[in-house]
Amino acid sequence: MCGICACIGNFLCKDFIIDGLKKLEYRGYDSAGISFIDNNALKVIKTVGDIDALSKLAEGVKADAIIGHTRWATHGGVTVENAHPHLSKSGKLAIVHNGVIENYKDLKAQMDVEWKSSTDSEVFVNLIERQKEDCLIRKVISASKKVEGSFAIALLSADGEIVAGRRENPLYIAEVDGGFVATSDLYVLSEKTENYFALENDEFAVLKKSGVEFYDKNGEKIAKKQQKIEKFNKISAKFKNTHMESEIFEAKDVLEKTLDFYLKYGFSTIKIPKNLQEINFIACGTAYHSGLVAAEYFKKIGLPSHTYIASEFRYGNEVLNLNALYVFISQSGETADTIASAKLIKESGCKMLAVTNTQNCFLNQICQNVLPTFAGKEIAVASTKAYLAQVFSLYLFACFLGGRDVKEASDAVSKFEIVDFPDSLTQYALKFKKIIFVGRGLDYITALEASLKLKEISYINSIAIASGELKHGTLALVDNETLVVGILTQQKTREKFLTNLEEVKARGGEILLVSNCIEEGYNCLTLPNCAEDLMPIYSVVPLQIFALKMCKKLGFNPDKPRNLAKSVTVE
Ligand code: AGP
Fold first, then answer.
1. Does 489 score more than 70 pLDDT?
2. What is the Å distance from ligand 1's center to 33 Cα?
3. Domains assigned to the chain
4. Which residue in 403, 414, 408 sits closest to 266, CA to CA?
5. pLDDT at 472
6. What is the pTM (predicted TM-score) of this model?
7. Which of 22, 26, 18 minimizes the C-alpha distance to 45?
């Protein structure tokens, strides 16, 4: 996904844009750029690399109307030419765009333009320019009817007008320092204003120095209700400046906030099918892992439950059940595959629930039934505190549906403490070329999540496997260059699990055990104890820290891992 920002007014627009793009950088950091008016002509400054690189190039810029963009490449490689903003053929229009225009090739074939990039966004700005309507807002609305796909856009015209609009990807409008701004993410507005307007699908806005006008898809002026921004967590001062480190250490606050909210308000506002027969989870990445844990919780209260990878589900042949609840888990609420799966379920008439960490996200609008998580803004690409919030919220939801008390949950929160991953064990792990995470039951899911964390920020080739599966092939990988990280908190399968570890040792593999029970003969990181069902919350945190420390030892940036973005709004 990308991030867009626009501002108009007599305040320091450039400072707002650069600060805003830095706050948007977690959404994509391949390249960045701005467009502004210089001597009555549109000027574009753009570069591959991060916002600091752009900021240096934009040092002398003084303008009272600017649009800006930070990119995660979808159509077209990471090059300056493909960086936004993109100019129209006449040079009189500039666009910044977050989203994907699916029919851009057909549209492109109808235009006689000397293309400067291979992006869909450049096609979009030329489509807008070619519209016959007499003013920019009507051109934009007319062109939006011809595109298929998603967009959050801001356009700057050579005569200093800014028009913004959205379909699926979020866009927020606000007044800041007497001027007016548009941005992809409320985080940009934090510390700048408390109030904002959220554009709905196919709504548009004209930003002028004198104010903002809102329009619907028919070009009719509309009035919009102002909303209040929730507080954003600052990076804890005691950590240097990585969001990921700060977010990991917010774990206890997140658990306490979640417990307080659901003890106070319960789940009665959540719409549940009368004769609920099953509950299914659909998500991607880390959210998929929290869905796997959640399914175990609902099976334990007697509800059949399945968890699907969204990108598989949407093209699969699942037999839908009108008496099921389909739960879409997404920290951002913008992930394209999860959104697409939710649209499929919506069309089927089945009941839906969104479990999201972002107010006003698109997934909430589609599901119209929301179980919010209270992790606070999660900036680091690697999801940590949001995972805890998802697992814990769904545990409490299962207790509610199953009529179970939450005493164990309260105990787990009160006893929760961050178990650091020792530097000595990190140093030890660095020696190995292969790192395999193993577990059984809930521990296997934790192994999946731990392996994803390690891969995505330290780029170490790591896998996770159910320990009982090792002997069915993967054991062939094991040699003296292999570290097997065993997660053991589920007592039912303890003996079998330890036997699997012996199979590894017998083949020269090294073992590191992460467990709440003391096991002789292993390098062991000991966890505090809580109810077995909630041990995934205790065991995952030191493994998040393990990934973070490995990443830093290898000299990478945990907040901006290569090739990735915080939420993948493309398929
Ligand atoms: C997790 O660390 C990754 N950043 C990624 O797997 C993420 O969980 C996935 O893209 C889903 O994002 P979402 O929760 O915003 O839908």
1. yes
2. 26
3. 3-228 (3.60.20.10), 236-416 (3.40.50.10490), 418-558 (3.40.50.10490)
4. 403
5. 97
6. 0.88
7. 18
